[in-house]
Specification:
The structure holds two protein chains of two kinds.
Chain A lengths: L3 E4 L2 E4 L5 E7 L5 E7 L6 E6 L6 E2 L6 E4 L5 E6 L8 E8 L6 E2 L3 E5 L1
Parallel strand pairs in A: 2-11
Antiparallel strand pairs in A: 1-3, 3-8, 4-5, 4-9, 5-6, 7-8, 9-10, 9-11
Chain B lengths: L3 E4 L2 E5 L4 E7 L4 E9 L6 E7 L4 E4 L2 E6 L4 E6 L8 E9 L7 E2 L3 E6 L1
Parallel strand pairs in B: 2-11
Antiparallel strand pairs in B: 1-3, 3-8, 4-5, 4-9, 6-7, 7-8, 9-10, 9-11
The chains are: A mainly beta, B mainly beta.
């Protein structure tokens, strides 16, 4: 049972490039989330999904897009990367009112 | 604005000693409060979860307490081990529906031999 898997683990981009971060969960969870974690700050919610085919904006959605075409996958896209998007990105999934299960993060640097 | 404040920011203790981490929140009411452990380079892992009616919850050497009147929670670690070195994050879920989970910035704990 892999839980929540994020790919890639590390990535370096140049300003203006685009990329997609993939999150996959094998626990059949309905809810999935994308967070960013910056030094000295708590995790901040970027986008979330309450089920296949649905997405919603979180606290800091600007510059990001998401898709949930399949229940097990939640994709986070950066259309035109900016240095301010340098961060560690975490995906999480959850069932009901249970604790969230997190992946191990994607470390993204924008030069 | 709803906030979750944790103290101290960092803490160094000797192996075998006990320690207590603090969490103050302004979220009210709330659905539940959780403590997570985050090892370096890993994602957070749930330690405890408490609803507003619970005062204490234990998970091995970890004991969380909650005072809903003063809006304070603490995480007590007993007989610390080197593997306890990590960040500990306090998380509050407001009772507003949707997904408004609020994360504290964490306390970085270093356990020294």
């Amino acid at each position: 049972n892999a839980g929540v898997t994020q790919t890639p683990k590390f990535r370096v981009l140049k300003t203006g490039q685009s990329m997609t971060l993939l999150c996959a969960q094998d626990m059949n969870h309905e809810y999935m989330y994308w967070y960013r974690q910056d030094p000295g700050m708590g995790l901040r919610l970027i986008h979330y999904s309450v089920g296949e085919g649905t997405t919603a904006k979180g606290e800091v959605p600007d510059g990001y897009n998401v898709s949930r075409l399949k229940k097990q996958n939640f994709l986070l896209g950066l259309e035109s990367a900016a240095p301010s998007q340098t961060s560690v990105y975490f995906c999480a999934s959850m069932a009901g009112n249970q604790p969230q299960h997190f992946g191990d993060g994607t470390r993204l640097s924008i030069l | 604005k709803n906030q979750v404040e944790q103290s101290p920011q960092s803490l160094i203790i000797l192996e075998g000693k006990n320690c207590t981490l603090q969490c103050n929140y302004t979220v009210s009411p709330f659905s539940n409060l959780r403590w997570y452990k985050q090892d370096t380079g890993r994602g957070p892992v749930s330690l405890t979860i408490m609803t507003f009616s619970e005062n204490t919850k234990s998970n091995g050497r970890y004991t969380a307490t909650l005072d809903a009147d003063t809006k304070q929670s603490s995480l007590h670690i007993t007989a610390s081990q080197l593997s306890d070195s990590a960040s500990y994050i306090c998380v509050v879920n407001p009772n507003t529906g949707g997904f408004k989970t609020i994360f504290g910035a964490g306390t970085r704990l270093f356990v020294k031999a």
